[in-house]
Amino acid sequence: MTHPRTILITGASSGIGAALAVFYAKAGTRLILHGRNAERLGAVAKACRDKGAQAEEAALDITDRMAVQAWIEEADKRAALDLVIANAGISGGTGGGGASEPAAQVRQIFDTNLTGVLNTVEPVLPLMIARKKGQIGLMSSLASFSGWPGAPAYSASKGAVRLYGEALRPRMAAKGVKINVICPGFIRTPMTAVNGYSMPFLMDADRAAALIAQGLEKNAGRIAFPWQTYLMAGFFGLLPPGLSALLFAGLPEKPQI
After folding, report:
1. 86 with 245: CB under 8 angstroms?
2. pLDDT for residue 199
3. Is the pLDDT of residue 196 over 60?
4. Neighbour tally for 249: CB within 10 Å
C-alpha cells in the first residue's frame, strides 16, 4: 500500500483517528494531529514517533474556525498536505430520561460533527485546488442513511457530512482533488463504549483504520463497512418513513453526551 507523505488528521486523540495516525506512521511520513485531550493526543503522537514518523500535535477546539484555519494553513506552508482526514466528532442520543434530546447537546453535536468538518475542509480545499492535487476524507457514519430516533442530531449531522462530501466529489475531481466519504458502522472506541446495548458486527479501530486507508488509496467515493451493517443501513434508508419509524421504535436509545 502506498502511503501519502504528509497527513493531517483531526480527532486523533482516540478511536478511529488515533488508529489512523498509528496506521500511517512510518519513517518518512509527517503527521499533523489534532485532538481535544492534550494528554491522550501526546500519547498517540509518541506512538507514531516510535514507529519512525514525524508527528506534530495541536490540542485545539475544532469548532473555532479561525484557530483551525490558522493551524491548517501553517501546517501546509511547512509541507504541502497530501491527505486530510476530517475525523473529529462526538456522539450523543436521547437516553437520559428526558422527553427529547437536550437542545445544548444537539448544538454541540452539530458544531463538532458538521461545523468542525467544514472548518477543516474549507481552509485546505483552495490550497489543494491551486496545486491540482490532494485528498480529503470526510468522516460520516452508517447512521447517515436514515434518521435514528435514539440519536437525532448524530444521524442528521453525519447525514449532512455524507451528502456534502458526495456532492463535492465530482466537482473537485475535475480540479485534481479527491474527496472520499467514510461511513463506518459500530467501531470499538470510547464513543461506542458508553452504549449499553449490543452492537452488531462491532469492529476494532485498527481494522477500521486499515479498511479506511485501503479505500482512500483506491479513491473510493464511499468507504462503508462492515458490509453487513452497510447493507442494513442502506435498506432502512430506502424504506418509507412510516415503516422505518415502526422498525426503529423498538431500538435502544443512545446515551446522552
Report:
1. no
2. 63
3. no
4. 8
Residue type, position 168, single letter: L
Residue 73 lies in a domain: yes
Active site residue 24: no
**Structural domain count of the chain:** 1
pLDDT category of residue 125 using cuts at 50, 70 and 90: very high
pTM of the model: 0.91
- Measured distance CA(35)–CA(18) in Å, rounded: 9
From the list 154, 164, 197, 230, the catalytic residue is 154
Q: What is the CATH number of the domain that holds 190?
A: 3.40.50.720
Which amino acid appears at position 166 of this protein? E
Whether residue 253 lies inside any domain: the answer is no
1 assigned to some structural domain: no
Residue 176 belongs to domain spanning: 6-248
Task: Give the per-residue SS3 of 99-129.
Answer: CCCCHHHHHHHHHHHHHHHHHHHHHHHHHHH
